Amino acid sequence: MSIDLNSLVEHDLSGECPVCRTQDIVNIALLPAAAAWELNNGLPRFALALHGAAGLLAAMLEEGVPRTEIETAMSALLDDIESQIDEDSTMGGPPQGTA
Ligand SMILES: [Zn+2]
Questions:
Q1: pLDDT in tens, 38-76
Q2: Residue 7 CA to ligand 1 centre (angstroms)
């Protein structure tokens, strides 16, 4: 089986870009939920975020996706996100509030 991680990492330039839509779901739903679980369970900040991300990636490992491919894809995503953060901070704040 081969899963094409590049197709999961690269933006398409449509308004329905799957990368942007997925990142929106993470920001709107998963991040606040993880933060609430951490707070309610007396866990350190980002404990669940980190282990949740690792656990989700573990599911990919179990499906047979090579670790090196996952690491390459994660590195590309983090580069992308970092450059977005840089852009946002030069524009004067995160681009929230599109709802
Ligand atoms: Zn996109």
A1: 999 999 999 999 999 999 999 999 999 999 999 999 999
A2: 11
Chain-centroid distance of CA 98 in Å reads 19
Read off the tokens for 48. 């669940």
Spacing, Cα 24 to ligand 1 middle (Å)? 10
CB 48 within 8 A of CB 38: yes
- What is the distance in A from the centroid of ligand 1 to the CA of 89? 19
Q: What is the mean pLDDT of the chain?
A: 90
| Rounded Cα gap, residues 68 and 65, in angstroms | 9
DSSP letters spanning 5-35: THHHHSPPSSTT-HHHHHHHHIIIIIHHHHH
